[in-house]
Every structure is written in structure tokens, then in C-alpha cells.
Amino acid sequence: MRFLVRDRILGIGDDYWIEDEHGRKVFLVDGKAMRLRDTFELKDAQGRVLIDIHQKMFALRDTMVIERDGQTLAKIRRKRLSLLRNHYRVSLADGTELDVSGKILDREFAVEYDGELLAVISRRWLSVVDTYGVDIVRDDADPALLIAVAVCVIHLAEKEREEG
């Protein structure tokens, strides 16, 4: 499955649609303005909230939390002691981890589980300006979760660039 994301610098309050490869609107990323922390909702085409994304308060390192129905699905933070600045760890609620690495700011990175590729985020195969693709490789993967992971790591990388 391939999804197309209009690439904006994610600011609080920004909303944008994610389309499937046929141009149908599938997910809406709804940025919540006027909040103390960075907050987004991933909604389906009917407006139902599928995933809540927010910045963890009082964390030593920037951490984003992904929740579904009030339950934490994942926590995302830059990997500690990594020589690459573009390396993130996604700690899932079941104790497993996803690894995100590549050129985050260039929108060229991969999401892996235990060395197995789950998704590729890339601009290379698209001709539409300011758009990147999220190509879900495994059929049994959760597209909403993987899109939320991509939104989070891009947001964290952009924020780090602004602060650094």
C-alpha cells in the first residue's frame, strides 16, 4: 500500500490529507493549536480519530507518544548514542521496538522491525512537488501506526533542526 503525504513543515494547527495511490483521501492529520504540547490527531476520511499523537511532557529528551483509544501504542525518541542523528527508536506497548533510520529531513528513510522492512518513506518515486510517499511493505502492518510514526519522526527531526 502506498500513501501520499503533502509535505509541509508541520506546525501546530496544520491540517493536511494523506491520500492513497489512487488519489482518494484516506487519513487527515489534524494539528491541534493552542495546546501546551505538540498534538496531532490522525483521523479517517469520516472524521473518526484513529490515533492521537502528542509530545510527552517533562521528558529528558523529546519524545512523541502515539495512542489509540486512550491506550499508549508507542513512544518515539531519537536513539541514544547513535552516530547518526537520523536514527529513532519506536518502543511499542508490547515491549517490541521498531527502528527508524535514514535521511529524515530529506524524507528518505525506512521503518524496520527486527531487521525486517515494514515501510519505506521516500520522495524518489514521486513527481509531485512537496510530496513524499509512505510505502507499507507488509500486508499485515498497521498503516495508521506507520504513518503516525513517520509524522512523529519528521516532526522531531524538524524540531531538533530548529533548536540546533
UniProtKB/TrEMBL annotation:
SUPFAM superfamilies for the chain: Tubby C-terminal domain-like (SSF54518)
Top-level taxon of origin: Bacteria
Protein name: LURP-one-related family protein
Pfam families reported in the protein's UniProt record: LOR (PF04525)
Family: Belongs to the LOR family.
